[in-house]
Amino acid sequence: MNILVVDDEKLIVKGLKHSLEQQDYKVFVAYNGEEAFQIIESENIDFIILDLMLPDIDGMILCKKIREKYNVPILMLTAKDGDYDKILGFEFGADDYMTKPFNVLELLARIKAITRRLDSEKKKSILSIGSLMINYDERKVFVEEEEKDLTQKEFEILYLLAKNPGRVFTREEIFKYIWEEDPLDVRTIDVHIKNIREKIEKDVKNPKLIKTKWGVGYYFNKI
């Protein structure tokens, strides 16, 4: 895992770098916000340890700037020990918060806890049913490892049905879930289902994944 340490206190950076490398992490270091952002844009950074007080930019602002473009976990370090700063840090996108001076063993434990939680969440965002794989975070659908090009609405309908296998949804329910408004013309659901089947089913005339409950609606077949 690639970790970026952003702090202008060189002794702290040196100590953190040594401790992290002992855990087999690859460590990048930056002493100000500009250096940090250059590294983030040029390297594949998996985790950021970010000091609140930097010489060229406020750590909160940098955290927000990073979060606008990247979904990388951020642990903030600060000499301030106040609830307001913690709350503000979380609002700006930090995943965790530690006050200096800190215990390095605790910091390592928090890094592992955050990465475990995020890995678990990522796995939950992936549905795998037979030869069909749906990656919700990346908005991608694969059938037998071949990516299928679904529209936004097609993807949302497919994901809704697939994560609730066996549950029959009426056309009105699907419309409300996806469009988040009262149904106007529910026949559009039939069109979307037809298009989805053409992209994921082997035999459109005899679909195995998305089934029709005649007179009611649609459901995803339990495999």
UniProtKB/TrEMBL annotation:
Q: Where is the OmpR/PhoB-type domain?
A: 124-222
- Response regulatory domain residues: 2-115
CDD domains, per database record: trans_reg_C (cd00383)
**DNA-binding region positions on the chain:** 124-222
Residues bearing the modification 4-aspartylphosphate: 51
InterPro entries registered for this protein in UniProt: CheY-like_superfamily, OmpR/PhoB-type_DNA-bd, Sig_transdc_resp-reg_C-effctor, Sig_transdc_resp-reg_receiver, WalR-like, WH-like_DNA-bd_sf
One GO biological process this protein is involved in is: regulation of DNA-templated transcription
Does the UniProt entry include the keyword Transcription? yes
Q: Which GO terms describe its molecular function?
A: phosphorelay response regulator activity; transcription cis-regulatory region binding
Out of the domains of life, which is the source? Bacteria
Extract the Pfam families matched here: Response_reg, Trans_reg_C
Q: Which GO terms describe its cellular component?
A: cytosol; protein-DNA complex
Q: Which UniProt keywords apply?
A: DNA-binding, Phosphoprotein, Transcription, Transcription regulation, Two-component regulatory system
Q: Which PANTHER family match?
A: PHOSPHATE REGULON TRANSCRIPTIONAL REGULATORY PROTEIN PHOB (PTHR48111:SF40), REGULATOR OF RPOS (PTHR48111)
Instruction: Please give the name of this protein.
Output: DNA-binding response regulator, OmpR family, contains REC and winged-helix (WHTH) domain
Its source organism is Tepidimicrobium xylanilyticum
